[in-house]
């Protein structure tokens, strides 16, 4: 009787441990899949911005039409997958993201280049904030203070860089005024310093050809008496810098997920 009772207790304990282990693994898998989907959506937003930006500069609304429609369709597919995979209480915030994605595509050809930059920039930042929420929840559950402290410290650097880049973008619209040109030069120098700080987080990302070119341009603009760059060229520079910041954050996420679960799949930024 005692042996039978012991076996029953052991079975219950093992079943409980198996249940919680399986539940934990399912939770990790869901968080990982959501991060992967948000990451893909972020890259599709960047692609959509690049295509619409080129079309607006050339004043040819039909330029890259097929690529643009394909990009948007894939974006909607990934967004639907995101909503389907999310837990019930989190679905509303991913539906809000989907509304923003639809807004990107709606009447984009009626925007100015500056407005197009702002709309896409807000959505890209929104994606990154959603990714940060997943990361924070994951870190809290893991109990890994070492990984958590490093992530929070690096995220603050990324966040500060995004804020400075936003100020640089805003200042470009006043480039043709003396005060506006001074603001552009000021934020170019401030952005350069932020990129230098990001190089401590992800040396390879900030040592890329795109980054080296951007750093040189920022230094040149700040040192010049008169800015020779056009507004369109400056907006393109901010797009390149946005890519660098995204790459740094992506490396942060991959380092975190590798420590807690598994690394994110490799992707090609563009």
TrEMBL record:
The source's superkingdom equals: Bacteria
Q: What is this protein called?
A: Nitrate/nitrite sensing protein domain-containing protein
Origin organism is Vibrio galatheae
